[in-house]
Design brief:
Helix content: over 70%
Low-confidence stretches: none
Structural class: mainly alpha
Shape: elongated
Number of helices: 2
Distance between the termini: 22 Å
Amino acid sequence: MSETAQECRDRAAALRATHGTSPLTNVRDRYEAAALKWEAMAETAERIVKQRAARCG
């Protein structure tokens, strides 16, 4: 995973900002689903960092 947790959260926020106000329900739903996946990747990135820190130190 090359993105940091903050980068993943930034992408989620950008998706919501860009497409969250679309008049089309399917577009809003699709981009909200993508934003949720980016947030899940952010949580995974944070967990990996914590696990690495615990092992190293």
